[in-house]
Amino acid sequence: MQTEIREKEILVTREVYDVSNKEDLTFKSKPGINEEVVREISKHKQEPEWMLQKRLIGLRVFNELPTPIWGPNILDLDLSKIHFFMRPNAKSNAENWAEVPEDIRKTYEKLGIPEAERIALAGTGAQYESEVVYHKLKEQWEKLGVIFLDFDEAVKKHPEIVRKYFMNSCVPIRLHKFAALHAAVNSGGTFIYVPKNVKIDMPLQAYFRMNARSGGQFEHTLIIADEGSEIHYIEGCSAPRYIENSLHAGCVEIHVLKNARVRYSSIENWSRNTYNLNTKRAIVYENGIMEWVNGNLGSRVTMLYPCSVLRGKGARTDYLGIAYAGQEQHQDTGCKVYHLAPNTSSNIISKGISKNGGISSYRGLVEIKKGAIGSKSSTRCDGLMLDDISKSTTFPSMNVQESDVTASHEAAVGKVGEDQLFYLMSRGLSESEATKLIVSGFIEPIVKELPLEYAVELNRLIELEIENSVC
Protein backbone atom coordinates (compact mmCIF):
# COMPACT_ATOMS: atom_id res chain seq x y z
CA MET A 1 0.00 0.00 0.00
CA GLN A 2 1.23 3.51 -0.74
CA THR A 3 0.16 5.69 2.15
CA GLU A 4 0.97 9.13 3.40
CA ILE A 5 -0.53 10.02 6.77
CA ARG A 6 -1.14 13.73 7.17
CA GLU A 7 -3.60 14.87 9.84
CA LYS A 8 -5.32 11.47 9.68
CA GLU A 9 -5.68 11.70 5.89
CA ILE A 10 -4.35 8.70 3.98
CA LEU A 11 -3.41 9.34 0.35
CA VAL A 12 -2.88 6.62 -2.25
CA THR A 13 -1.11 6.99 -5.58
CA ARG A 14 -1.01 4.45 -8.40
CA GLU A 15 2.45 5.00 -9.85
CA VAL A 16 4.32 2.97 -7.21
CA TYR A 17 2.72 -0.29 -8.38
CA ASP A 18 3.96 0.11 -11.96
CA VAL A 19 7.55 1.10 -11.19
CA SER A 20 9.96 -1.77 -11.80
CA ASN A 21 13.48 -2.37 -10.51
CA LYS A 22 16.41 -3.37 -12.67
CA GLU A 23 16.48 -7.16 -12.87
CA ASP A 24 19.06 -8.55 -10.44
CA LEU A 25 18.85 -12.32 -10.06
CA THR A 26 21.24 -15.01 -8.93
CA PHE A 27 19.27 -17.64 -10.84
CA LYS A 28 16.60 -17.59 -13.54
CA SER A 29 15.22 -20.81 -14.94
CA LYS A 30 14.93 -21.29 -18.67
CA PRO A 31 11.46 -20.39 -19.97
CA GLY A 32 8.89 -23.18 -20.06
CA ILE A 33 7.90 -26.04 -17.81
CA ASN A 34 9.46 -29.51 -17.87
CA GLU A 35 11.01 -32.05 -15.51
CA GLU A 36 14.41 -30.36 -15.64
CA VAL A 37 12.93 -27.10 -14.35
CA VAL A 38 11.00 -28.89 -11.59
CA ARG A 39 14.10 -30.74 -10.42
CA GLU A 40 16.11 -27.49 -10.53
CA ILE A 41 13.61 -25.78 -8.22
CA SER A 42 13.73 -28.65 -5.74
CA LYS A 43 17.54 -28.76 -5.86
CA HIS A 44 17.88 -25.02 -5.23
CA LYS A 45 15.64 -25.37 -2.19
CA GLN A 46 17.46 -28.46 -0.89
CA GLU A 47 14.13 -30.21 -0.40
CA PRO A 48 13.51 -33.69 0.98
CA GLU A 49 12.80 -36.45 -1.50
CA TRP A 50 9.08 -36.59 -0.67
CA MET A 51 8.65 -32.97 -1.74
CA LEU A 52 10.41 -33.59 -5.05
CA GLN A 53 8.15 -36.57 -5.70
CA LYS A 54 5.12 -34.40 -4.95
CA ARG A 55 6.37 -31.90 -7.51
CA LEU A 56 6.86 -34.59 -10.14
CA ILE A 57 3.32 -35.89 -9.56
CA GLY A 58 2.09 -32.34 -10.06
CA LEU A 59 3.98 -32.04 -13.34
CA ARG A 60 2.55 -35.32 -14.60
CA VAL A 61 -1.02 -34.33 -13.69
CA PHE A 62 -0.52 -30.87 -15.23
CA ASN A 63 0.44 -32.48 -18.53
CA GLU A 64 -2.57 -34.82 -18.36
CA LEU A 65 -5.29 -32.28 -17.58
CA PRO A 66 -6.78 -30.03 -20.27
CA THR A 67 -6.64 -26.24 -20.23
CA PRO A 68 -9.97 -24.84 -18.96
CA ILE A 69 -12.19 -23.46 -21.73
CA TRP A 70 -15.35 -22.81 -19.71
CA GLY A 71 -14.43 -19.34 -18.44
CA PRO A 72 -12.31 -16.42 -19.65
CA ASN A 73 -10.04 -16.92 -22.62
CA ILE A 74 -6.56 -17.84 -21.42
CA LEU A 75 -5.29 -19.28 -24.70
CA ASP A 76 -2.98 -16.29 -25.19
CA LEU A 77 -1.01 -17.37 -22.12
CA ASP A 78 2.07 -19.05 -23.59
CA LEU A 79 3.66 -21.07 -20.79
CA SER A 80 6.73 -21.78 -22.94
CA LYS A 81 7.72 -18.13 -22.42
CA ILE A 82 7.23 -18.00 -18.64
CA HIS A 83 10.19 -18.24 -16.25
CA PHE A 84 8.92 -20.46 -13.45
CA PHE A 85 11.68 -19.84 -10.90
CA MET A 86 13.72 -16.68 -10.28
CA ARG A 87 15.95 -16.17 -7.26
CA PRO A 88 16.63 -12.50 -6.43
CA ASN A 89 20.07 -11.34 -5.36
CA ALA A 90 19.01 -11.06 -1.74
CA LYS A 91 19.30 -12.89 1.55
CA SER A 92 16.37 -15.17 2.30
CA ASN A 93 14.17 -14.52 5.33
CA ALA A 94 15.97 -11.47 6.68
CA GLU A 95 14.59 -10.34 10.05
CA ASN A 96 15.79 -6.77 9.68
CA TRP A 97 14.80 -4.52 6.77
CA ALA A 98 18.36 -3.16 6.70
CA GLU A 99 19.50 -6.57 5.45
CA VAL A 100 17.21 -6.36 2.40
CA PRO A 101 18.89 -4.93 -0.75
CA GLU A 102 18.20 -1.22 -1.08
CA ASP A 103 16.20 -1.34 -4.33
CA ILE A 104 13.93 -4.10 -3.01
CA ARG A 105 13.60 -2.45 0.40
CA LYS A 106 12.59 0.85 -1.19
CA THR A 107 9.90 -0.93 -3.20
CA TYR A 108 8.34 -2.26 0.00
CA GLU A 109 8.77 1.10 1.72
CA LYS A 110 6.82 2.77 -1.10
CA LEU A 111 4.14 0.11 -0.67
CA GLY A 112 4.00 0.95 3.04
CA ILE A 113 4.87 -2.52 4.34
CA PRO A 114 7.52 -1.69 7.01
CA GLU A 115 5.35 1.15 8.35
CA ALA A 116 2.28 -1.10 8.60
CA GLU A 117 4.40 -3.73 10.36
CA ARG A 118 5.50 -1.24 13.01
CA ILE A 119 2.04 0.06 13.90
CA ALA A 120 -0.55 -2.62 13.14
CA LEU A 121 0.79 -6.11 12.46
CA ALA A 122 1.78 -9.13 14.53
CA GLY A 123 4.16 -10.32 11.82
CA THR A 124 5.14 -9.69 8.21
CA GLY A 125 6.47 -11.67 5.26
CA ALA A 126 7.67 -10.13 1.99
CA GLN A 127 8.22 -12.20 -1.14
CA TYR A 128 10.08 -10.88 -4.20
CA GLU A 129 9.96 -13.05 -7.33
CA SER A 130 10.27 -16.68 -6.14
CA GLU A 131 11.87 -16.07 -2.75
CA VAL A 132 10.85 -14.61 0.61
CA VAL A 133 13.33 -11.80 1.36
CA TYR A 134 11.93 -10.69 4.74
CA HIS A 135 10.01 -12.55 7.44
CA LYS A 136 9.43 -11.74 11.10
CA LEU A 137 6.97 -12.54 13.88
CA LYS A 138 6.74 -10.33 16.95
CA GLU A 139 8.19 -11.95 20.07
CA GLN A 140 4.97 -11.89 22.09
CA TRP A 141 3.37 -14.35 19.67
CA GLU A 142 6.44 -16.56 19.42
CA LYS A 143 6.24 -17.02 23.19
CA LEU A 144 2.66 -18.31 22.81
CA GLY A 145 3.76 -20.96 20.33
CA VAL A 146 2.59 -19.29 17.13
CA ILE A 147 4.58 -20.44 14.10
CA PHE A 148 4.90 -17.95 11.24
CA LEU A 149 7.42 -18.98 8.61
CA ASP A 150 8.27 -18.79 4.95
CA PHE A 151 6.70 -21.96 3.52
CA ASP A 152 10.07 -23.21 2.23
CA GLU A 153 11.48 -22.93 5.76
CA ALA A 154 8.47 -24.80 7.15
CA VAL A 155 9.22 -27.73 4.82
CA LYS A 156 12.62 -28.03 6.53
CA LYS A 157 11.67 -27.18 10.13
CA HIS A 158 8.22 -28.82 10.36
CA PRO A 159 8.20 -31.52 7.68
CA GLU A 160 5.72 -33.77 9.52
CA ILE A 161 3.05 -31.02 9.62
CA VAL A 162 3.64 -29.83 6.05
CA ARG A 163 3.63 -33.36 4.67
CA LYS A 164 0.32 -34.06 6.43
CA TYR A 165 -1.49 -30.99 5.09
CA PHE A 166 0.24 -29.91 1.86
CA MET A 167 -2.03 -30.46 -1.17
CA ASN A 168 -3.79 -33.52 0.23
CA SER A 169 -7.33 -33.06 1.55
CA CYS A 170 -7.80 -29.31 1.11
CA VAL A 171 -6.40 -28.67 -2.39
CA PRO A 172 -5.77 -32.02 -4.06
CA ILE A 173 -3.26 -31.97 -6.89
CA ARG A 174 -5.88 -33.14 -9.40
CA LEU A 175 -8.30 -30.32 -8.52
CA HIS A 176 -7.56 -28.57 -11.82
CA LYS A 177 -4.70 -28.00 -14.26
CA PHE A 178 -3.24 -24.95 -12.54
CA ALA A 179 -3.43 -26.52 -9.09
CA ALA A 180 -1.27 -29.31 -10.51
CA LEU A 181 1.11 -26.73 -12.02
CA HIS A 182 1.36 -25.09 -8.62
CA ALA A 183 2.23 -28.41 -7.00
CA ALA A 184 5.08 -28.76 -9.51
CA VAL A 185 6.64 -25.28 -9.26
CA ASN A 186 5.50 -23.71 -5.96
CA SER A 187 8.05 -21.45 -4.30
CA GLY A 188 7.94 -19.27 -1.20
CA GLY A 189 4.74 -18.32 0.56
CA THR A 190 3.58 -18.55 4.16
CA PHE A 191 3.15 -21.20 6.84
CA ILE A 192 1.11 -20.36 9.95
CA TYR A 193 0.19 -22.53 12.91
CA VAL A 194 -1.87 -21.03 15.74
CA PRO A 195 -1.95 -23.21 18.89
CA LYS A 196 -5.13 -24.15 20.76
CA ASN A 197 -7.05 -21.22 22.25
CA VAL A 198 -4.48 -18.63 21.15
CA LYS A 199 -6.22 -15.56 19.73
CA ILE A 200 -3.98 -13.24 17.77
CA ASP A 201 -5.50 -9.76 18.08
CA MET A 202 -3.28 -8.19 15.39
CA PRO A 203 -3.20 -9.29 11.75
CA LEU A 204 -0.36 -11.24 10.17
CA GLN A 205 0.52 -10.08 6.66
CA ALA A 206 2.40 -11.25 3.59
CA TYR A 207 3.06 -9.17 0.48
CA PHE A 208 3.92 -10.78 -2.85
CA ARG A 209 5.70 -8.74 -5.49
CA MET A 210 6.65 -9.75 -9.02
CA ASN A 211 9.26 -7.61 -10.80
CA ALA A 212 10.86 -9.43 -13.75
CA ARG A 213 9.46 -9.69 -17.27
CA SER A 214 7.67 -12.90 -18.30
CA GLY A 215 7.79 -14.08 -14.72
CA GLY A 216 5.71 -16.49 -12.71
CA GLN A 217 4.94 -16.47 -9.02
CA PHE A 218 3.63 -19.57 -7.24
CA GLU A 219 3.65 -18.92 -3.50
CA HIS A 220 1.99 -21.46 -1.20
CA THR A 221 0.07 -20.38 1.89
CA LEU A 222 -0.77 -23.01 4.52
CA ILE A 223 -2.69 -21.91 7.63
CA ILE A 224 -3.65 -24.22 10.48
CA ALA A 225 -5.83 -22.69 13.18
CA ASP A 226 -5.99 -25.18 16.04
CA GLU A 227 -9.07 -25.62 18.25
CA GLY A 228 -10.43 -22.41 19.74
CA SER A 229 -7.81 -20.17 18.09
CA GLU A 230 -8.31 -16.98 16.06
CA ILE A 231 -6.24 -15.31 13.35
CA HIS A 232 -6.59 -12.57 10.73
CA TYR A 233 -4.23 -12.96 7.78
CA ILE A 234 -3.81 -10.21 5.16
CA GLU A 235 -2.32 -10.73 1.71
CA GLY A 236 -1.30 -8.06 -0.77
CA CYS A 237 -0.08 -8.57 -4.33
CA SER A 238 1.23 -6.34 -7.11
CA ALA A 239 3.50 -6.24 -10.16
CA PRO A 240 4.75 -3.63 -12.66
CA ARG A 241 3.21 -3.59 -16.12
CA TYR A 242 5.08 -4.95 -19.14
CA ILE A 243 4.12 -5.92 -22.67
CA GLU A 244 5.02 -9.56 -22.00
CA ASN A 245 2.54 -11.76 -20.14
CA SER A 246 3.15 -12.94 -16.59
CA LEU A 247 1.51 -15.69 -14.55
CA HIS A 248 0.40 -15.88 -10.95
CA ALA A 249 -0.83 -19.29 -9.80
CA GLY A 250 -0.55 -19.29 -6.04
CA CYS A 251 -2.38 -21.59 -3.68
CA VAL A 252 -3.96 -21.08 -0.26
CA GLU A 253 -4.90 -23.97 2.06
CA ILE A 254 -6.61 -23.20 5.36
CA HIS A 255 -7.62 -25.67 8.07
CA VAL A 256 -10.06 -24.20 10.60
CA LEU A 257 -10.30 -26.67 13.46
CA LYS A 258 -13.10 -26.99 16.03
CA ASN A 259 -14.29 -23.62 17.41
CA ALA A 260 -11.50 -21.76 15.57
CA ARG A 261 -11.93 -18.60 13.48
CA VAL A 262 -9.90 -17.43 10.48
CA ARG A 263 -10.29 -14.25 8.48
CA TYR A 264 -8.39 -14.06 5.19
CA SER A 265 -8.25 -10.60 3.59
CA SER A 266 -6.67 -10.06 0.20
CA ILE A 267 -6.16 -7.18 -2.22
CA GLU A 268 -4.81 -8.45 -5.54
CA ASN A 269 -3.58 -5.62 -7.72
CA TRP A 270 -1.58 -7.40 -10.41
CA SER A 271 -0.61 -5.52 -13.57
CA ARG A 272 -2.69 -5.87 -16.71
CA ASN A 273 -0.27 -8.24 -18.39
CA THR A 274 -0.72 -10.82 -15.58
CA TYR A 275 -2.90 -13.92 -15.71
CA ASN A 276 -4.10 -14.50 -12.15
CA LEU A 277 -5.10 -18.17 -11.88
CA ASN A 278 -5.16 -18.56 -8.12
CA THR A 279 -6.59 -21.32 -5.89
CA LYS A 280 -7.91 -20.71 -2.36
CA ARG A 281 -9.66 -23.32 -0.21
CA ALA A 282 -10.52 -23.92 3.43
CA ILE A 283 -11.77 -26.91 5.39
CA VAL A 284 -13.90 -25.85 8.35
CA TYR A 285 -14.57 -28.21 11.24
CA GLU A 286 -17.19 -28.19 14.03
CA ASN A 287 -18.36 -24.67 14.92
CA GLY A 288 -15.41 -23.18 13.05
CA ILE A 289 -15.71 -19.89 11.18
CA MET A 290 -13.99 -19.03 7.88
CA GLU A 291 -14.24 -15.47 6.54
CA TRP A 292 -13.02 -14.40 3.10
CA VAL A 293 -12.63 -10.70 2.18
CA ASN A 294 -11.34 -10.28 -1.39
CA GLY A 295 -10.55 -7.29 -3.59
CA ASN A 296 -9.49 -7.94 -7.19
CA LEU A 297 -8.45 -5.04 -9.41
CA GLY A 298 -5.43 -5.88 -11.49
CA SER A 299 -4.58 -8.62 -14.01
CA ARG A 300 -5.58 -9.23 -17.58
CA VAL A 301 -7.57 -12.28 -16.54
CA THR A 302 -8.50 -13.43 -13.05
CA MET A 303 -10.04 -16.82 -12.31
CA LEU A 304 -10.46 -17.03 -8.55
CA TYR A 305 -13.17 -18.77 -6.50
CA PRO A 306 -12.32 -19.07 -2.79
CA CYS A 307 -13.91 -22.26 -1.48
CA SER A 308 -15.06 -23.36 1.97
CA VAL A 309 -15.73 -27.02 2.75
CA LEU A 310 -17.98 -27.05 5.83
CA ARG A 311 -17.08 -30.44 7.20
CA GLY A 312 -18.14 -30.12 10.86
CA LYS A 313 -21.58 -29.44 12.30
CA GLY A 314 -22.24 -25.79 12.99
CA ALA A 315 -19.40 -24.66 10.71
CA ARG A 316 -19.84 -21.26 9.07
CA THR A 317 -18.34 -19.26 6.22
CA ASP A 318 -18.76 -15.68 5.02
CA TYR A 319 -17.52 -14.33 1.70
CA LEU A 320 -17.25 -10.66 0.74
CA GLY A 321 -15.77 -9.93 -2.68
CA ILE A 322 -15.28 -6.94 -4.96
CA ALA A 323 -13.87 -7.11 -8.49
CA TYR A 324 -13.13 -4.24 -10.88
CA ALA A 325 -12.65 -4.86 -14.62
CA GLY A 326 -11.37 -2.10 -16.86
CA GLN A 327 -10.23 -2.03 -20.47
CA GLU A 328 -9.03 -5.45 -21.74
CA GLN A 329 -9.69 -7.04 -18.34
CA HIS A 330 -11.85 -10.03 -17.46
CA GLN A 331 -12.44 -10.57 -13.74
CA ASP A 332 -14.08 -13.97 -13.28
CA THR A 333 -14.46 -14.34 -9.53
CA GLY A 334 -16.86 -15.83 -7.03
CA CYS A 335 -17.17 -18.34 -4.22
CA LYS A 336 -17.77 -22.04 -3.66
CA VAL A 337 -19.27 -23.60 -0.55
CA TYR A 338 -19.84 -27.27 0.23
CA HIS A 339 -22.22 -27.95 3.14
CA LEU A 340 -21.32 -31.45 4.32
CA ALA A 341 -22.64 -31.40 7.92
CA PRO A 342 -25.81 -30.38 9.79
CA ASN A 343 -26.51 -26.79 10.81
CA THR A 344 -23.79 -25.28 8.65
CA SER A 345 -24.25 -21.81 7.20
CA SER A 346 -22.85 -19.62 4.44
CA ASN A 347 -23.34 -16.00 3.49
CA ILE A 348 -21.96 -14.75 0.17
CA ILE A 349 -21.88 -11.13 -1.00
CA SER A 350 -20.16 -10.34 -4.29
CA LYS A 351 -19.84 -6.99 -6.07
CA GLY A 352 -18.55 -6.51 -9.61
CA ILE A 353 -17.77 -3.23 -11.40
CA SER A 354 -16.91 -2.89 -15.08
CA LYS A 355 -15.85 0.03 -17.27
CA ASN A 356 -14.21 0.74 -20.64
CA GLY A 357 -15.25 -2.61 -22.11
CA GLY A 358 -14.15 -4.69 -19.11
CA ILE A 359 -15.95 -7.88 -18.14
CA SER A 360 -16.83 -8.64 -14.53
CA SER A 361 -18.33 -12.07 -13.85
CA TYR A 362 -19.60 -13.78 -10.73
CA ARG A 363 -19.20 -17.55 -10.87
CA GLY A 364 -20.28 -19.45 -7.78
CA LEU A 365 -21.40 -22.81 -6.44
CA VAL A 366 -23.33 -23.74 -3.33
CA GLU A 367 -23.77 -27.44 -2.70
CA ILE A 368 -25.74 -28.82 0.25
CA LYS A 369 -25.24 -32.54 0.64
CA LYS A 370 -27.80 -35.06 1.84
CA GLY A 371 -27.76 -35.14 5.62
CA ALA A 372 -26.73 -31.49 6.07
CA ILE A 373 -30.06 -30.76 7.75
CA GLY A 374 -30.72 -27.33 9.17
CA SER A 375 -28.13 -25.70 6.91
CA LYS A 376 -28.58 -22.17 5.61
CA SER A 377 -27.08 -20.41 2.61
CA SER A 378 -27.58 -16.92 1.24
CA THR A 379 -25.98 -15.52 -1.92
CA ARG A 380 -26.17 -11.96 -3.20
CA CYS A 381 -24.22 -10.90 -6.30
CA ASP A 382 -24.50 -7.44 -7.85
CA GLY A 383 -22.94 -6.04 -11.00
CA LEU A 384 -22.50 -2.37 -11.82
CA MET A 385 -21.59 -1.18 -15.34
CA LEU A 386 -20.21 2.33 -15.70
CA ASP A 387 -20.73 2.66 -19.47
CA ASP A 388 -22.48 1.11 -22.47
CA ILE A 389 -19.64 -1.13 -23.68
CA SER A 390 -18.81 -3.09 -20.52
CA LYS A 391 -20.28 -6.41 -19.38
CA SER A 392 -21.39 -7.82 -16.07
CA THR A 393 -22.56 -11.43 -15.85
CA THR A 394 -23.48 -13.99 -13.20
CA PHE A 395 -23.10 -17.77 -13.33
CA PRO A 396 -24.58 -19.10 -10.08
CA SER A 397 -25.04 -22.79 -9.42
CA MET A 398 -26.92 -24.43 -6.54
CA ASN A 399 -27.11 -28.14 -5.85
CA VAL A 400 -29.38 -28.82 -2.87
CA GLN A 401 -29.74 -32.49 -1.95
CA GLU A 402 -31.50 -32.02 1.39
CA SER A 403 -35.05 -30.72 1.99
CA ASP A 404 -34.69 -29.42 5.55
CA VAL A 405 -32.52 -26.43 4.62
CA THR A 406 -32.81 -22.76 3.66
CA ALA A 407 -31.07 -21.58 0.50
CA SER A 408 -31.48 -18.32 -1.40
CA HIS A 409 -29.82 -16.49 -4.27
CA GLU A 410 -30.28 -12.93 -5.49
CA ALA A 411 -28.58 -11.21 -8.40
CA ALA A 412 -28.85 -7.73 -9.84
CA VAL A 413 -27.00 -6.21 -12.78
CA GLY A 414 -27.39 -2.62 -13.89
CA LYS A 415 -25.84 0.70 -14.83
CA VAL A 416 -25.29 3.82 -12.80
CA GLY A 417 -28.75 5.41 -12.65
CA GLU A 418 -29.24 8.67 -14.48
CA ASP A 419 -31.56 9.83 -11.70
CA GLN A 420 -28.81 9.21 -9.13
CA LEU A 421 -26.28 11.14 -11.21
CA PHE A 422 -28.74 13.98 -11.78
CA TYR A 423 -29.50 14.28 -8.08
CA LEU A 424 -25.86 14.36 -7.03
CA MET A 425 -24.80 16.70 -9.84
CA SER A 426 -27.65 19.05 -8.91
CA ARG A 427 -25.96 19.31 -5.52
CA GLY A 428 -22.75 20.61 -7.10
CA LEU A 429 -20.78 17.42 -7.81
CA SER A 430 -19.16 16.78 -11.17
CA GLU A 431 -20.18 13.64 -13.07
CA SER A 432 -16.89 11.97 -12.12
CA GLU A 433 -17.32 12.86 -8.45
CA ALA A 434 -20.92 11.67 -8.48
CA THR A 435 -19.95 8.38 -10.11
CA LYS A 436 -17.21 7.77 -7.54
CA LEU A 437 -19.64 8.46 -4.71
CA ILE A 438 -22.15 5.96 -6.12
CA VAL A 439 -19.44 3.34 -6.54
CA SER A 440 -18.20 3.94 -2.98
CA GLY A 441 -21.67 3.20 -1.69
CA PHE A 442 -21.88 0.11 -3.91
CA ILE A 443 -18.71 -1.44 -2.48
CA GLU A 444 -19.17 -0.21 1.11
CA PRO A 445 -20.15 -3.64 2.57
CA ILE A 446 -16.76 -5.04 1.51
CA VAL A 447 -14.59 -2.03 2.30
CA LYS A 448 -15.87 -1.64 5.86
CA GLU A 449 -14.57 -5.14 6.68
CA LEU A 450 -10.96 -4.23 5.77
CA PRO A 451 -8.44 -2.59 8.13
CA LEU A 452 -8.33 1.18 7.63
CA GLU A 453 -5.21 1.37 5.44
CA TYR A 454 -6.44 -1.39 3.13
CA ALA A 455 -9.93 0.09 2.91
CA VAL A 456 -8.49 3.44 1.86
CA GLU A 457 -6.16 1.74 -0.62
CA LEU A 458 -8.99 -0.23 -2.24
CA ASN A 459 -11.27 2.81 -2.42
CA ARG A 460 -8.59 5.02 -3.91
CA LEU A 461 -7.45 2.46 -6.47
CA ILE A 462 -11.00 2.07 -7.74
CA GLU A 463 -11.34 5.87 -7.87
CA LEU A 464 -8.19 6.06 -9.96
CA GLU A 465 -9.52 3.41 -12.31
CA ILE A 466 -12.75 5.35 -12.70
CA GLU A 467 -10.76 8.49 -13.47
CA ASN A 468 -9.08 6.42 -16.23
CA SER A 469 -5.67 7.44 -14.93
CA VAL A 470 -4.34 4.00 -15.87
CA CYS A 471 -4.89 2.76 -19.41
Record the SSE blueprint:
Elements (H helix, E strand, L loop, with lengths): L4 E2 L2 E2 L4 H4 L6 E4 L6 H10 L4 H16 L21 E3 L13 H10 L1 H8 L2 E6 L2 E7 L1 H4 L4 E4 H7 L1 H7 L11 H9 L3 E6 L9 E6 L6 E2 L2 E6 L4 E9 L7 E3 L2 E6 L4 E9 L4 E3 L2 E6 L4 E8 L4 E4 L2 E4 L5 E10 L4 E4 L2 E4 L5 E10 L4 E10 L7 E10 L5 E10 L5 E10 L2 H9 L4 H17 L4 H15 L5
Parallel strand pairs: 5-9, 8-11, 9-12, 10-13, 11-14, 12-15, 13-16, 14-17, 15-18, 16-19, 17-20, 18-21, 19-22, 20-23, 21-24, 22-25, 23-25, 24-26, 25-27, 26-28
Antiparallel strand pairs: 1-2, 3-4, 5-6, 7-8
Helix pairs in contact: 2-3, 3-9, 7-8, 10-11, 11-12
Please describe the structure with a list of short key phrases separated by commas or semicolons.
single chain; 25% helix; 10-stranded mixed sheet; disordered N terminus; 2 domains; alpha/beta; 471 residues; 14-stranded mixed sheet; globular; 12 helices
